[in-house]
Amino acid sequence: MSSYSIGQAAGLLGVSAETVRRWADGGRLPARRTADGARSFDGATLAAFAKARACDPRPQPPAGNGTATSVRNSFVGIVTAVRLDDVAAQVEIQSGPHRVVSLVTRESVEELGIAVGARVTARVKSTEVYVDVP
Fold it and tell me: Residue 33 domain-assigned?
């Protein structure tokens, strides 16, 4: 299962690391401590939290992802649901206040290891959505 540091969680949620720290200290966002004492956030828990706060009307800055591409409409987010069929798959992503749903092949989901809690980037070009894994 995916896990995230405070900085990574902050980037996915579109808030500062200090905000994530306050949420964790206040019990709003469950965290566990690593061996060195740092906070760590479970991917599935973070996905549920991101989905729950998606209706927050405050603007959220986009998170960078370090991937070179010609596609300009990119949504860095966390996978909140994956529905598999025999051939196709539906991947639901929460990117700040934006919910993006992509229909891709089941084979792609399996090859990329896409699961709830994974950090992904949805790329929108024309009528197609591409999903990248960092």
Answer: yes
List alpha helices for 26-132, DSSP H: 43-52, 106-112
Flag whether 134 is in a domain: no
Amino acid (one-letter) located at 5: S
CA distance 110 to 85: 12
Q: Is 7 inside a domain boundary? A: yes
Q: How many C-beta neighbours within 10 Å does residue 75 have?
A: 22
- Which 3 state secondary structure label does DSSP give 24? helix
Name the residue among 20, 26, 24 with its Cα closest to residue 8: 20
Q: Two tokens at 9? A: 């969680």
What is the tens place of the pLDDT at every residue in 68-103? Answer: 666 677 888 999 999 999 999 999 999 988 899 999
Residue whose structure tokens are 């599935």: 44
Amino acid type, 20 = V
